[in-house]
Design brief:
homodimer, five-stranded parallel beta sheet, 16 helices, globular
Chain lengths: 375, 375
């Protein structure tokens, strides 16, 4: 499938109009944080969602199918909103220029590390997903080129076809100079510990590019208890899905093959840091009736392969726990724009009761190191 | 179904013999913690597993069926061990007398709050489950009567028949003077937020008896990603299962009807405390597209209805986080005998870097209050 960008953009007139009209309605506090005299905290936000018209249009097509996958609730709400209504979040997602920069300016945010929002290109057939990944990566790279001090970006790829995914990953880093990768947890209910996906892990490691495992709703095989009370959302299911993904990577021993791979978990590590003691005890090497082959303890994989971001968990106690548990060099600040309001996320890091040197690392230094940001 | 205790005990000769023979092989460190001169920390352990021969025999029958439920791995390993081998944990589980007391003495543990180990009576048909709950409760009450300063006990019941469950709950508290209840998460893949189970919640609240939601493996509808790498175990699946159960109770609004119900979550609250900020933001009242009816924020339910125990999470950072997040009056010490060794669990609480008054609460005071222990 070839994507004709002009044709697609034409088809997206309604969505784009909504995007422009919607900017004024952004539910963002516009109050700039008071700055301490003489000090200013540089802030790079590392899980900042966006979309591009081509992907939004394709997701609207997905919304018209009869899938029972739990992500369909979100896909329907955002990409198939009734005509004449404001699609929740879509205007903000599609704006990777002035509207977004204004929110950042108003809140004293230096940079968004942009990423194509969930479910990315993972709900499409392999050809469509592969083609749309290219389109999305080009668009994000273009935004970075236009505003190099304000945006950096993670590249997307279609795990549905690992071989072509690897080619796009190489293009994204080598040609587009993007800053890492993002994947939205499972792909057609399969996880990255399956050997067919290992070329993707190998490529990320070889390219020295971190792989952000972003949430999507729980996979079909674990969906049932999440079908009530909107449990599939960021309120609960997202975290269970990604944390389970991370634990599969650890207890399968997959990470023994990729010791230099860096994986990023949002939402304060999806609570995996809080589980590390129990994971170590019950998941120690050799314990698991030969159904596990992990050579390291989970906490050792965590130290070797993972960093976390604070997106959506503005809890100073959780921040302190995480820093003490996995080390201050492994914790990165994030907003989760536009799903979380910017002002409280900024206040969270500005007011964090941690030493200033640690705050500098969390707010920007670690992001610069992990994502190779040099501006 | 009527259980003839003498007949059943006869049939269990092999298991019982294994139990006696096995005590010497207990993998417990026997070193008593050095006591500080002049001080001694009273210790009531609140998630201490046991079994009775009748339930063990019935689970051996279950092991011979073709269920695909994830608990079958544990049921098979423990209750259907090959002849001539030592069934893991079974001897320790069946000993609610001298062997257990010796481990407690050797480690300076005052009391075990006994409970019938997972999956309890929840894998049986309603008649068998109901009958076995009575047998188990009688046996545990007998152990408490024999050693009233060393044992207290939680009562079991069969949620498969909520009406008869309530009768047994009333008998357990009013006649047997037991200290609360235990349930092993889902029953036939259903959770306590379903109105058919509400009489159980109503009874626990009316009897002023706390309900411990103990893990079992994830329910069938969420089992798929846990079928690899023994992920269904205490290493991961147990926590996901119980935490999801707790979140269902909160986001369904079920707890609005039972404001005085006390629910106990083991394993440092199954990490739910660490999720409270995000649960509050994404699960706040009115947010959830009318598919949720909760009147309170999750953290408000947590404060109102939940306490946690430290079983299986001997992490001082997690202890500190939990005390700071939910309050020291809501954190109780537990070992998780025999699945966790006693010596490190004792060392964990003895050496916890918290004020002595807090340590007294966690080690015994909160247990005395929540479970009405007065010895």
């Amino acid at each position: 499938m070839t994507i004709d960008r002009r044709e697609m953009l034409g088809a997206m007139t309604a969505v784009a109009a909504g995007a422009v009209a919607g900017v004024a309605g952004v539910a963002e506090g516009a109050t700039t944080q008071p700055k301490k005299s003489g000090t200013r905290l540089k802030k790079i936000a590392t899980e900042e969602a966006c979309s591009v018209p081509e992907v939004a249009a394709a997701l609207r097509e997905v919304a018209h199918t009869t899938w029972t996958n739990l992500d369909m609730l979100l896909v329907n709400a955002i990409y198939n909103a009734p005509a004449g209504t404001r699609a929740p979040f879509l205007p903000e997602l599609l704006d990777i220029d002035a509207g977004r920069l204004k929110v950042m300016d108003d809140n004293d945010v230096d940079m968004h590390l942009l990423s194509l929002t969930a479910p990315g290109v993972q709900m499409f057939d392999a050809d469509t997903g592969t083609a749309l990944a290219t389109v999305a990566n080009d668009a994000l790279a273009e935004a970075v080129k236009k505003h190099p001090t304000r945006y950096s970006a993670l590249a997307t790829f279609a795990p549905q076809d690992p071989k072509r995914a690897v080619k796009e990953m190489e293009r994204a880093i080598n040609s587009l100079k993007m800053n890492g990768f993002i994947i939205n947890s499972h792909t057609n209910n399969e996880y990255l510990d399956l050997p067919k996906f290992w070329p993707i892990l190998e490529a990320a490691e070889a390219l020295d590019a971190a792989l952000y495992i972003h949430p999507r709703a729980p996979s079909d095989g674990m969906a049932a208890p999440f079908r009530d009370y909107r449990l599939e959302t960021a309120a609960w299911g997202y975290g269970v899905e990604v944390a389970t993904h991370a634990v599969r990577l650890m207890l399968s021993g997959t990470l023994d093959h990729f010791p230099k791979l860096k994986i990023v978990l949002g939402h304060m590590g999806e609570a995996v840091p809080f589980w590390l003691w129990r994971l170590d005890f019950m998941g120690r090497p050799g314990f698991g009736n030969n159904m596990r082959t992990n050579k390291l303890k989970p906490s050792e994989y965590f130290r070797q392969n993972f960093v976390i971001t604070t997106s959506g968990v503005e809890d100073h106690l959780a921040l302190r726990y995480s820093i003490d548990r996995i080390g201050v060099d492994s914790v990165l600040w994030a907003i989760d724009y536009p799903y979380q309001p910017t002002t409280p996320a900024v206040k969270f890091i500005e007011s964090a009761p941690i030493p200033d040197a640690d705050k500098q690392k969390v707010a920007h230094g670690n992001a610069e190191r992990i994502f190779h940001i040099n501006v």
